[in-house]
Structure formats: structure tokens, C-alpha cells
Specification:
Layout lengths: L2 H27 L1 H14 L4 H12 L19 H7 L11 H18 L4 H10 L1 H7 L19 H10 L7
Helix pairs in contact: 2-3, 2-5, 5-6, 6-7, 6-8
Length: 173
């Protein structure tokens, strides 16, 4: 085999997978693709697409590699411990992969939705402030799925603001 043919074969073997990988990375981490994946994950996991979209926007501004000071990672700003809790076979580092992070975020929201009586204000408060904190705050209170409990968190500025960013304003009667 001539040297030119060997070089050509080498290029096909080496460059094609690299180009394919580059194209896949661009597709997966592209801001438009991430937004579409966010809406898709909401539909797949039976969540309100508007709420899930605003939650991801609030958490990370759709930046797949975002890391908070509390070491929350990726689009949904999920901590490794939460991911392990939600998905038993979670592996460190996977939260940087957008479809995986969105899946974990959606599954955790579904869990919180069941835990807090299908009430979105409590679900969002728990996602932001912590499940245990919200559980203690709501202890002994019968949860109404339609009630707006955001005022119960007005003393926790970050959580109160978080709920208001994601939830539409409460309807006045």
C-alpha cells in the first residue's frame, strides 16, 4: 500500500470519529438544543413545561456547565447527593450531560410533587430551600394542591423570590 493511501485511510479512521464527536457535542450543548431538551423532558416526565422551562432558566440560564457555590451542577443545579438519591446508579460527572441532568431534575421534581401534595409553590420551595426545611415549615398543615403558599416563605428572601420567578402570579378572586 502506498504512503498516500495509508495517510488517507488513517485520516478516515481518526478524523471521522473526531468530527462526529464534535458535531454531537455541538448538538447536545447548543443553547437552542438545550431549550428543546428542557421542554421535551417536561413532556416526558409529565411536568408543566412552562414551570420546568422557567425553573431551568432560573437555575442555570441554560448553561450545562454551571456550578454553584454549593456544588450544584448543570442545568437543573442538582447536587451529586441528590442525584444519587433520585437515581440509585448515578455516576459522578454525569450531571454535566444535559439530557441526564434534565432527567434527574424532572424526576426529583416529580418526587417533590408527590411529597408535597401536588402543590407547586411547595415543590419549588423544596427544590430551592430544601425538602427537609419545607417539610418542617409545613408540619401539621393539611396541604391543599391548589393553595398558594408562597407567603409562608416571605421571610426566606431567596426562596420567596425563586417561587415568584417561576410561578405565575396568584389569581385574585
Amino acid at each position: 500500500m502506498s504512503t498516500a493511501k495509508k495517510k488517507s485511510k488513517f485520516r478516515r479512521i481518526v478524523y471521522f470519529p473526531l468530527v462526529l464527536l464534535l458535531v454531537l457535542l455541538i448538538l447536545v450543548y447548543n443553547p437552542v438544543s438545550v431549550r428543546l431538551m428542557t421542554l421535551s423532558a417536561a413532556v416526558i416526565y409529565g411536568l408543566d413545561p412552562g414551570i420546568f422551562y422557567r425553573l431551568i432558566n432560573t437555575e442555570s440560564r441554560f448553561r450545562s456547565f454551571a456550578v454553584s457555590p454549593a456544588q450544584a451542577i448543570g442545568l437543573g443545579q442538582v447536587q451529586e447527593s441528590t442525584a444519587s438519591y433520585v437515581h440509585m446508579s448515578h455516576r459522578r460527572g454525569m450531571l454535566y450531560f444535559p439530557p441526564y441532568n434534565l432527567s434527574i431534575s424532572a424526576r426529583y421534581l416529580n418526587y417533590l410533587h408527590r411529597r408535597f401534595g401536588n402543590n407547586w409553590t411547595l415543590v419549588l420551595a423544596a427544590y430551592n430551600w430544601g425538602e427537609s426545611n419545607v417539610g418542617r415549615r409545613m408540619s401539621g398543615i393539611r396541604i391543599d394542591p391548589e393553595a398558594d403558599y408562597r407567603e409562608r416563605f416571605s421571610d426566606i428572601r431567596e426562596t420567596y423570590g425563586y417561587i415568584n420567578k417561576i410561578m405565575p402570579p396568584a389569581k385574585k378572586a
